[in-house]
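Try this one yourself first.
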């Protein structure tokens, strides 16, 4: 219809021009070399219109509907500069879903840095603060959509160039600001960064002040971390009473590691329970919760079963050879899927029980323990290197009618132990972890 109207208008204009020329032949004709363009072109008007945030918002929306997310985010970011609430919301949505962020990364960071700080009577934007905190710690996973992030492993994202040069000081700045806005993960991270000295000088009392409220609200993992700080005397005074307090908080949720430490403290007498028999019963009950519970992993179950095996093997109040053997068998079951040092210990325990009556069977168990041990890290191998010596001595003395004495095998296993202990173990440093808990991943 518009085209028809324009055509009619042009026809009428030509007709009017012809009539004018016929009635006024002396009038001067305007030619193209006299005037080349109109005073106001459509480009000028279009550019002025795009300065209207509602027009640029419309254009950005149209680009999004056409699937051009790069151009859409570009214009949404421009519109957001006018404090257009709809554009700000859309920019955050597109960032969260990784739409157009790669091409517009620089502008995205500028947008976030602007809104991450208070502006007049407007509060800082919590989303911007947390995003920048993650970004400046070198987390490439922030460039993925929310649905993709759970499967992302930090440092293994290959689709993007490296993020800003890891600036942990800047990262801490934004985490602390977000923590003051009551963001739980940021509170935890601020506590852990102070605990481990990441981005700030180590400050354990200040770290504890951030972590305690989270533990008091029932976060078992954080309560365990607090208990472990006091249990180990980690950059603070060792205090088993305070450690047990926090382990008990975590144990209400059957937190396996907390139950384990409470039980060990009870066994060693570091407990508020005065009676020895009551402490042993408490330890047994705690270990059984780990073995029979659903929260523990196989390694934790193996350790708890091993501790139970030792108690029933040696403690006079509950001594029971059959029960002890049953729990040691459980250790081996739990160690089948995850080879661990407690499986090694259980094999050595079984072998030591057989040495006096069946040295051949004992030697087979020692060999099995060595085979499993050699699959474990060097520090674990060195801790249990006596198994080489035990097997060597079995060959050194032999057993009449059961196991032949073999001096060459004795020398071989003694030399293996010597070579193992001569190696230097260099601990792997994990600056962002404490007892397996990452400073940047909120547990629970």
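Now uncover the answer:
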């Amino acid at each position: 219809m518009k085209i028809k109207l324009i055509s009619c208008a042009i026809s009428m204009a030509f007709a009017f021009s012809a009539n004018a020329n016929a009635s006024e032949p002396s009038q001067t004709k305007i030619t193209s070399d006299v005037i080349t363009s109109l005073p106001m072109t459509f480009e000028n008007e279009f550019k002025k219109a795009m300065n209207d945030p509602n027009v640029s918002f419309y254009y950005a929306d149209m680009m999004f509907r056409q699937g051009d997310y790069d151009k859409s985010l570009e214009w949404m970011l421009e519109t957001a500069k006018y404090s257009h609430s709809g554009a700000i919301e859309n920019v955050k949505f597109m960032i969260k879903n990784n739409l157009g962020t790669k091409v517009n990364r620089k502008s995205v960071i500028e947008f976030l840095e602007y809104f991450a700080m208070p502006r007049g009577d407007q509060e800082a934007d919590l989303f911007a603060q947390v995003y920048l905190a993650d970004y400046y710690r070198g987390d490439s996973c922030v460039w993925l959509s929310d649905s993709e992030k759970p499967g992302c492993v930090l440092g293994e994202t290959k689709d993007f160039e490296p993020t800003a040069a890891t600036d942990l000081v800047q990262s801490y700045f934004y985490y602390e600001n977000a923590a003051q806005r009551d963001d739980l993960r940021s509170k935890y991270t601020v506590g852990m960064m102070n605990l481990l000295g990441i981005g700030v000088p180590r400050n354990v009392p200040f770290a504890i002040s951030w972590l305690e409220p989270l533990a008091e609200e029932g976060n078992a993992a954080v309560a365990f971390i607090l208990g472990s700080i006091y249990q180990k005397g980690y950059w603070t005074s060792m205090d088993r009473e305070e450690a047990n307090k926090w382990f008990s908080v975590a144990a209400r949720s059957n937190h396996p590691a907390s139950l384990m430490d409470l039980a060990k403290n009870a066994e060693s007498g570091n407990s508020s329970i005065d009676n020895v028999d009551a402490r042993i019963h408490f330890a047994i009950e705690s270990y059984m919760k780990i073995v029979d519970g659903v929260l523990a992993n196989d390694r934790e179950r193996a350790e708890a079963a091993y501790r139970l095996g030792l108690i029933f093997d040696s403690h006079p109040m509950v001594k029971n050879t059959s029960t002890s053997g049953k729990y040691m068998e459980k250790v081996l079951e739990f160690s089948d899927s995850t080879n661990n040092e407690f499986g090694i210990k259980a094999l050595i325990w079984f072998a030591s029980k057989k040495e006096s009556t069946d040295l051949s069977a004992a030697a087979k168990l020692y060999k099995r323990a060595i085979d499993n041990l050699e699959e474990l890290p060097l520090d674990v191998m060195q801790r249990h290197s006596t198994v080489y010596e035990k097997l060597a001595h079995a060959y050194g003395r032999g057993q009449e009618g059961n196991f032949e004495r073999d001096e060459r095998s004795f020398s071989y296993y003694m030399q293996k132990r010597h070579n193992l202990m001569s190696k230097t173990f260099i601990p792997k440093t994990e600056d962002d972890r404490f007892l397996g808990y990452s400073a940047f991943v909120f547990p629970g």
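Discussion: The two ends are 63 Å apart (CA to CA). The chain is about 65% helix and 0% strand.
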